[in-house]
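Handoff note, outgoing to incoming analyst
You'll be picking up this chain. Sequence as last confirmed:
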Amino acid sequence: MGMTGPPTTASKPNHTEKQPRRCAMNPFHSIKFFVLCHGLLQLSQLLVSGYLKSIVSTIEKRFGLSSQTSGMLSSLNEIGSAVFIVFVSYFGSRVHRPRLIGCGGILVSVAAFTMALPHFIMGRYTYDHTTTNNASTVSDICHLMPKDQNLNSESCSVEKSSSGYETLSLLVVGQLLLGVGGVPIQPFGISYVDDFASNRNSPLYLGILFAVSVLGPAFGFVLGSAVLRLYVDIDKLSAADIDLEFGDPRWVGAWWLGFLMAASFVGIVSVPYFFFPKEMPKEDSRDPEGEVNTDKKLNELKSKQDDVTQGLSLLQFIKSFPCILLRTLRSSVYLLVVLAQVCMSALMSGLTVFIGKFLEQQFTVTASFANLLIGSIHVPGAVLGIILGGTIMRRFQINLRGSAIMCFAAIFASICATAPLLFLGCSTQLVAGINDNVHISNSTSGLELSCNRGCSCKDQVYNPVCTADGIEFVSPCHAGCMSASFETDGKVVSYTNCSCVSAQTLVKPGTCGSGCYELLLPFMIFLTLAGFVATLCQTPSFILVLRSVKPEDKSLAIGIQFMLFRVLAWLPGPILYGSAIDTTCIQWEKKCNKKASCRYYNLDLFRVRYIGLQMLFQCGAFLLFVMAYYFLKKETLRREQQAKMATKAAVDPRVEEERKRLMEQDDGTKLHLESKA
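Most recent structure output, in case you need it:
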């Protein structure tokens, strides 16, 4: 029972009885315990990457980044992954997979700590604010004087020194380390589970791991929701010194705190992997005949894992990798299914990075609330879809053709649920000098109006105010406001004496918003439904990958699969989405005469291009799964024809000759392809 060593001899029956009992009590010889540990590690690893996605809009605001740059930062971890995934393909099952997974987890922990360091290096966060009821010292209201160019230059110098842009290199290094550390975790974990779990339970275990892999980002978004409610400099300022309120458009949360918490979690759950054995008996392979039969089955399993790459050195493997890659991609079903998964992975990579930003802009919610919605509603829906998909596979014992049908049916249903999202949103609020035709711009900057020409407003200032008739100005100065009304605690109630609005119009601090908050609930319902039905195909698609290649090529096929994910989906996906989002920007923030983050978007274009990209990838995945089903059906018909001919061969020898001729023709074709490879 559960022995991993050589079989005991018949002369020592007492050892034969005691050793299995000791192994059975060892949790590190149980595949179920490995699934538990691996689920926790995947949860913590993806908690880090999910948390990074939850703070994208905060990182953009803190460092002054465009969406394209933040998308590039989010995908940097795939560079290290794409390089080292080749080594995962080479090592396969010849290395101690659990220990290598544990080393990867430790490296992920180091990466998370590294990404928190910029906060402790850079200065305090600065913003435009009103702190006193003395109008002569208020910096963001209208002062009737010539524009002071030296003051702008000084502000630029202060912003440049406090922005901490150079500390972004630490985020880059952390992302690269995160990619390298995450390389062995999922491929080695999946192959280890599939090797030693029973054929009946393997889909369920994989479904659990895939569900946890989605649950990790969910916890990341929830963690982001919690820490972003805390002020970014909470460790440097007392509560009394923080005069910016949560919900203000200038608010920046404590983005660094989540990295410290996630790094600690990853380090703890990585420790058990150093105690798992390199090989363990296959689940449900034990029988009453004794451990000798168990060891035979284990040896058979090990022999299956020895493929043609096992006899190659590392240098020889790297040189021959292109040929091996072509040999693996020769399977039409494998290639089509992996490409379909690439489409869905590209969709998810862009969706998860910018969905928080999308909700913030479309429905005027805080980054904390957007992350809470994603982590508590959308991601759990995807988790349920993955679990249900694995359960259906296990309950009905669905074959490969059924798996393909399940995949393209789920993607089609997801497309239908995504289509209404194109229409759930509003247009951009009217902003004076940007998209408001009533207030005509008088300068190339787009913010200087005839009513605020003499106010000496700074170009880089951002402290939005909203009038009672729904017109937004980027600051009280740009609204021509010369005074402000304060509460006893110094909080601004309203701005008065504003030359750009009528005397009776009230000017309040804060943004006007898009006015689409009531559409947030139906949007989240359709978004969650689309994610739920799409993830039903997660487990069937991976089963198609594992069963469409030879058993000895399994580790290599998984390695190639994840390499294609990284190169074709996870690396370019966020950059593509970020570039599309940047094309919808109508007003950029300027720092030292350089373009920084976007302040205002054309929300209609934002919605159409963001959701449109999602539907484009869904349609690509649907077509590829349909093609995979076609090839599976064709292969099944060919095998049925050969089986019928074999049955008739006992009666008619001519049929047997024809069947042998077809088999020889198939073998000749295979040899010809292999010689080319």
